[in-house]
Design goal:
The chain is built from 1 helix and 37 strands. The protein is mainly β. The relative contact order is 0.07. The N terminus is likely disordered.
Length: about 350
């Protein structure tokens, strides 16, 4: 590989030797072997500490956490993708900031991250702003695929998590930050023991999750949106989850949720629920397709100011299409509007 310099009026190219000093550095430049057998932890950490860890399309074995503490750090597996095979306990990748020293704009892309039953999270972050994960595949971890707390505006695009012992994605607030504006575009979470996605906002102030064109399947639960406001779920596919596909509100009230054009499928008609509105206000459900559930949609109107609009649903092969608990409405404003399918 050669670098070339060219300028107008120069009758040709001036070749330069491709030394470490004048090209992008790969993990191998820091001593990585990349055969999946040698321990490359130290070499990859040196590359990360330089600000950009470029991987060469092979498998790198790590035995302890790779730690990001500096803003704008990149781990890039290259156009053909690379694998980090984590064989240790604890988390495979940690992004660690602090109050006032948040890690901003870290990026992880084009990697497969594998773990074992003795591991914790694939990616763990605290006090992280605008994390970007693109084309990331995480599998085999004992706890969560990705867990973030005390952060804001993460982006997950073309990411897949499967076969984890906790949640596929776990996003939560802490005492000092709100988990504002997470954007999930074309993500897949499958075979998580817990939730495909668990979003928790204890403050009630965080701008909510935007989840577009994703699949949540074969897990304990699909998605829990516990608190937050202004959630958007568009074009999602839920299938074969053991319990409920989508739960809106729980310990905390979810304020203003739009659920548009989502599919809730269960061909074996197991004892599960499509959509469960638990602790909510101003929820709109547009043109859902729900089949094979015990209850298609179940709604709690118990409490105050719980408004639900259900517009043109298709609900088939369910024991009950719609179940409503209105046993304890304590104030005006709790209402249900239902517009049947054409």
């Amino acid at each position: 590989m050669l670098h070339t310099n060219w300028s107008a009026g120069n009758p040709g190219h001036v070749a330069e030797h491709n030394t470490i000093a004048n090209r992008l550095k790969y993990a191998e430049d820091y001593g990585a072997i990349g055969n999946g057998i040698a321990d490359d932890t130290a070499a990859l950490q040196l590359a990360i500490d330089s600000g950009k860890c470029l991987l060469g399309g092979v498998t790198y074995k790590t035995t302890s956490a790779l730690i990001i503490t500096t803003s704008y750090t990149i781990i890039d597996g290259g156009i053909f993708g690379s694998t980090i095979a984590y064989t240790g306990s604890g988390n495979a990748i940690e992004i660690i900031g602090g109050l006032g020293t948040e890690v901003l704009y870290p990026k992880i892309k084009n990697i497969t991250l594998t773990g074992g039953a003795g591991s914790d999270d694939g990616i763990y972050g605290v006090f992280v702003g605008r994390l970007c994960c693109e084309n990331v595949f995480i599998t085999g971890f004992g706890a969560n695929g990705i867990e973030l707390s005390n952060g804001w505006s993460p982006l997950f695009r073309n990411c897949r998590v499967e076969d984890v012992g906790g949640d596929g994605f776990k996003l939560s607030t802490g005492a000092n930050h709100h988990m504002n504006n997470p954007l999930m575009d074309n993500v897949i979470s499958t075979r998580a023991v817990g939730y495909g996605l668990r979003y928790i906002d204890s403050s009630g102030l965080a701008s909510g999750a935007r989840i577009i064109n994703g699949t949540f399947q074969e897990s304990g639960y699909g998605i829990l949106l516990d608190g937050g406001c202004a959630h958007l779920l568009d074009g999602l596919h839920f299938e074969q989850n053991t319990n409920t596909d989508l739960i809106i509100g729980g310990t905390y009230t979810a304020l203003g949720t739009l659920i548009n054009g989502c599919f809730f499928l269960d061909w074996e008609e197991t004892a599960c629920v499509g959509i469960d509105l638990v602790n909510h206000n101003n929820t709109v459900i547009q043109i859902p397709f729900i089949t094979g559930k015990t209850n298609g949609i179940q709604i709690s109107l118990t409490g105050t100011n719980k408004s639900v609009n259900i517009i043109r649903p298709t609900i088939t092969l369910c024991d009950h299409e719609l179940v409503v608990d209105a046993s304890n409405i304590t104030a005006s404003g709790s209402n249900l509007y239902y517009e049947d399918a054409l």
